[in-house]
Amino acid sequence: MKKYFVSGVLAVCLAILSISCGKAPQAEIDSAKAAVDSAKAVGADVYLAETFTTIQDSLNAALENIEQVKSKGMFKNFDNAKTMLASVKTMADQAVVETEVRKNQVKEEVSLILTEIEAISAENIELLAKAPKGKDGQAALDEIKAELEAIDASIAEAKTLFDGGNYMAAKEKLSASKSKDMSINEELKAAISKTRK
Amino acid sequence: MKKIFRPFLIVFFSAISIITLFGTLSFLIPQPPVEKVTEARKTLGKAKTVKAGDYAIEKLTLAQNLYDSLMLEWANQNRKLFFRRDYTGVSSLANQTIDASNTAAHHARDLEKLFNTQFERRIAELKDVTSRFDSVFAGFPFPPEIKARYAKGKILLSEASRFYTKEKLTLCNERLAEAEEKISIVAPIVHQKLTDYFAQQSDWINLVNTALKESRVSGGELIIVEKIPPICKVYKAGKLTASFQAELGVNWIGDKHYKGDKATPEGKYRVVKKLDKKHTIYHRALLINYPNQEDELRFNAAIAKGSLSEKADIGGLIEIHGEGGKGYHWTDGCVALANRDMESLFAKVGVGTPVIIIGSLKDYSELFPFLDEEL
Questions:
Q1: Statement: the pTM of the whole predicted model exceeds 0.80
Q2: Which of B234, B276, B270 lies closest to B351, judged by CA?
Q3: B134 interface with A at CB cutoff 8 Å
Q4: Do A64 and B139 touch (CB under 8 A)?
Q5: What ipTM does the predicted assembly reach?
Q6: What is the CA radius of gyration of chain A?
Q7: Is A142's CB within 8 Å of B138's CB?
Q8: B74 contacts on A by Cβ (under 8 Å)
Q9: N- to C-terminal Cα distance for chain A?
Q10: Rounded to 5 degrees, what angle do the CA atoms B49, B164, A184 make?
Q11: Given an 8 Å threshold on Cβ–Cβ distance, is A4 in contact with B26?
C-alpha cells in the first residue's frame, strides 16, 4: 500500500510540474525585438512614426503578458504571448517594407522639387535682367539678387541633407526655398508686365 | 474486488490532496499588479501621442526609464521562488511611471499652447521688421557678408512660417531662433554705422550755414548736396530756387578716401569747369575741385599711417552730371541728376559756384525712427 501511495504522489507531482512549468518563448521574444530594431534602423520611427509607436506598444504589451504568465504558480501558458509576439514581428516586418516605399516616395518628391526649383531659379535670373530699374527698382532688384543667392545656399544645404539620407529634412528645406523662389518669380513677372502696359 | 480498487483509490485521493495543496499555495503566491502595469504603459503611450517627445523630452525620458525599470523588476521577482516574490517594487514603479507620464503630457500640452501663441507673434514681428528694413534700407551699402546673412535670415523665416503652418513647432522654434539671430544682426550694425556717420552732423550744419550766409551776402548761387535723402539743392542769395533728386556713388555713406572706392566726397568744393554735351558723355557736367586741400591732407595722413597703400591714388574728376534718374546709386563717386534736371542746374550756375556736399541736415531719429525701436 505504501508503494502505491508513493507512486501515486510522484505521478501526480510530475503531471502538475509538466503542466505548470511552461517556458517563456525566448526565441519569439528575440525575433520580435530584432524585427522592431530593424524597423527603427531603416527609419520607421521617422517615416511611419505613428505605426512605429503602435508596434512598440504592442511589443510592450506582449512582454507584459509574458511576465504576467510567469507570475503564475502553475498552469503557465504562453500561447497568447506567442501569438502577440508573432503579430509584432509581422507588423515590424511590414513597417520595414512600407518605410522603404515611403522613403522612395519622399526621394522622388525631393527630386521633383529640386528640378522645379532649379527651373524657377533659372527663370528668375533671366527675369532679373529684364526687370525695370525705375525709382527704387534697382534697390529692390539688389535685394532680390541677395535672396536668390540665399536660396542657392539653402538648396546646397538641402542637397547635403539628401546625400546624407535625411530625405524628410531635405524636402522641408527645399519646399520653403521653392515657396520663396516662386514668390520672387511672381514679383518679377508682375513688375515686368507693368512696364509693358 | 476491494483489493483491486484500493491502489486506484489511494492514487486518486493522493492526487486530490496534492492538487488541493498546490491550489491553496497558488492563492498564497503574491500577485503582480497587472492592471497597474497596463495603466502605466497606456499612460506612457498617451504622453507620446501629445508630443511629449517634442516639448517635454526630459520628463518623457524619465517616465520611459521608470517603465523600463518596472519591467526589469517584475522579471527579477518572477525569477525567484514563488514564496520569496515581492511585487511592491513593481507596483511602486508603475505608480511612478503613471505620475511621470501624466506630468510629461501636461507639460507638453501647456508648452504647445504657449509656443503656438508665441511663435505666431514672433513670426509676425520678424516679418514686420524685415518689411520695414527692406523699405528703408534697400540699396544701403551693407557689407556683402551682412547682406548675405540678412537674406539667409529671410529664407529661414520663410521655413519657420512653413513649419508653423504645419504645426511642427519644434522645427519652427529652431528656424525662428536662427532667423532672429541672422536678421537682428543688421539693426545694430546699421545703427552703429549711421551713428558714427551722424556724429559729424554739427560740422555739416555749420558748413551749410556758413555757405548760405555767404550766398546771402554775395547774392550768388550755391549748390548743396545732401546724401540722406539724396537731394541736390540750388540757392541764390541764400534762397532755395530748385531741388533735384540725386544719385550718388555706390558706396555713398561716408567721405571719399581714394580713387575707386566709389564714394561721393563730402565737404566744401566749387565748380571749376562746365562741360556741355560735346564735352561729356553724361549730357552735361559740372566738374568740381575734388580733391580739395582737406582731402589731400586726409589722404596723405592715411598713407603715412599705413591705412592706405602708398600706391593708392586720391582720384579726381568728380562731377555733378546728367544721365541720372536710374533710381539707385550707381556712380563711381559723382553726383548724377536726370538730364532735364541737369539742364536746369547747368543754366543756373557758373564756374566758381560753391558746392557743399554733406550727409544730412535731418535728425537721425526723424530719418530712422524704427531703428531706435528695434534696438
A1: no
A2: B270
A3: yes
A4: no
A5: 0.75
A6: 32
A7: yes
A8: 67, 71
A9: 121
A10: 150
A11: no
